[in-house]
Amino acid sequence: QVQLVESGGGLVQPGGSLRLSCAARGVIESIASMNWYRQAPGKQRELVASIDTIGTTNYGDPVQGRFIIFRVTANNTVYLQMNALKPDDTAVYYCNANLRSTKYFQLYWGQGTQVTVSS
């Protein structure tokens, strides 16, 4: 059984930084991509950043230039370094991964971690 375990959320002042982490645990044979999404109250879930197996990254427009996604392949962990945070970044952040445990590639989701940007 595969689990995505997230950590690193919390309360931060505008202009501050946070780093989120998401570790994929269990029987994992291959990971195609790992991604961060977020969902603010009353809004749809949106893609924040993604990284594929060869390290190609993609960012949502609202976070371009402020957030960095990187991945440590050896421990199946993806990180999201969030800088210059704004109140609009307040949301629950979810990690997901397209990975193969035994036979087929499937999407797995983490439980979510709250990020609140407020003075």
Structure in a nutshell:
By secondary structure, the protein is mainly β. It has no helices and 11 strands. The protein has strands at 3-7, 10-12, 18-25, 30-39, 46-52, 57-59, 67-72, 77-82, 91-100, 105-109, 113-117.
Number of continuous helical runs: 0
Q: How big is the Rg? A: 14 Å
In total, the number of strands is 11
H/E series, N to C? Answer: EEEEEEEEEEE
Mean pLDDT: 96
Bin the strand percentage.
over 45%
| Overall geometry | elongated
Report on this structure.
The chain has 119 residues and is an all-beta fold. 0% of the residues lie in helices and 57% in strands. It contains no helices and 11 strands. The chain has strands at residues 3-7, 10-12, 18-25, 30-39, 46-52, 57-59, 67-72, 77-82, 91-100, 105-109, 113-117. Strands 2, 4, 5, 6, 9, 10 and 11 form a 7-stranded mixed sheet that branches. Strands 1-3-8-7 form a 4-stranded antiparallel sheet, with no helix packed on it. The chain is elongated. It starts with a strand and ends with a strand.
